[in-house]
């Protein structure tokens, strides 16, 4: 069997022969049909994450069927279908003990601090896992935590969406954005999709976007025209290129929830505007097991996986290139 390895930063993913070790006492071995490819994988390759232990098997979008388990694993059995968080929480800190394990300072990310998903067989810690209902499609299983649960956390828990809220989603044609459109609809909001790719607009409408705006215009003005006063929530998934317009798209008292991009680039922050309009800016990171359970429930009928392409592991570097060139609508999956 082969797995993809990142052996040094700013280098291509290399396929090497690999046999996963036996699972540890608190681990299971998962057989995957698919694993997801996230833009964070590219940022990891480019060196933007300090906790990368090289060489490493990249990928944190993990899920499948348990085929082995360690002696201490009590809550999961061989044959269970599971989805994994993108990290292993410590289970001991104040955040883990309060159910906010996504903020755990000691968490270890799959594909960075330990081997991840670019392999058919993956060893995962039981603290990362949630059982998958039978109604959930196989393509959803690996992306449930990083995409769908992350969006539930950002829009529902951090953004505190209410029924009828207008939500602007930047980068709406990407692997996160297409699912954000569905999440906003599922939670009772009105999604406004921003995309710079004209060819993605029709599909965004099909997914439930009520309006589509373009970064080629001052879309903050378009948003105010659509809503009358501005968006209740902006889900900022792009970063420096859209941040200023996103902030100006908010209504008085609106919330800007930042989920991307993780590059350490400064953005314009007009303090007077924020103060006078009483706006809030919040970061949202990852998801918890409770978020993941909710995401899987929503995935039974309300949120469908939007898959731009399914590729072989050997084509991963071409997959990265297509993502960077914005040639993928939705999520990219590796099939095993």
Give an overview of the whole structure.
By secondary structure, this protein is of the alpha/beta class. The protein folds into 2 domains: 2-146 and 286-335, Quinone Oxidoreductase, Chain A, domain 1 (Alpha-Beta Complex), CATH 3.90.180; 160-283, Quinone Oxidoreductase, Chain A, domain 1 (Alpha-Beta Complex). The chain is 26% helix and 24% strand. The protein is built from 10 helices and 18 strands. The strands form 5 sheets. The chain has a 6-stranded parallel sheet with strand order 13-12-11-14-15-16, sandwiched between helices. The chain has a 5-stranded antiparallel sheet with strand order 9-3-5-6-10, covered by helices on one side. Strands 4-18-17 form a 3-stranded mixed sheet. Strand 12 (190-194), helix 5 (201-207) and strand 13 form a beta-alpha-beta unit. The radius of gyration is 20 Å and the shape is globular.
Short description:
It is built from 10 helices and 18 strands.
The third-level CATH topology of the largest domain is Quinone Oxidoreductase, Chain A, domain 1
What's the story with the biggest beta sheet?
6 strands, parallel
Q: How far apart lie the N and C ends?
A: 10 Å
Under the CATH scheme, which architecture of the largest domain would be assigned? Alpha-Beta Complex
DSSP helical segment count: 10
Biggest sheet, strands in spatial order?
Answer: 13-12-11-14-15-16
How many structural domains does the protein architecture include? Answer: 2
Under CATH, the homologous superfamily of the largest domain reads Medium-chain alcohol dehydrogenases, catalytic domain
Q: Percent range for helical residues?
A: 25-40%
The poorly predicted ranges are none
Going by helix content, strand content and strand pairing, the class is: alpha/beta
The shape is globular
Q: Radius of gyration, rounded?
A: 20 Å
Estimate what percentage of residues fall within beta strands.
15-25%
How do the SSEs run, as a string of H and E?
EEEEHEEEHEEEHEHEHEHEHEHEHEHE
Regarding CATH, which class of the largest domain? Alpha Beta
Cofactor: Zn(2+)
Organism: Ferroplasma acidiphilum
Protein name: Alcohol dehydrogenase catalytic domain-containing protein
InterPro entries: ADH-like_C (IPR013149), ADH-like_N (IPR013154), ADH_Zn_CS (IPR002328), ER (IPR020843), GroES-like_sf (IPR011032), NAD(P)-bd_dom_sf (IPR036291), Quin_OxRdtase/zeta-crystal_CS (IPR002364)
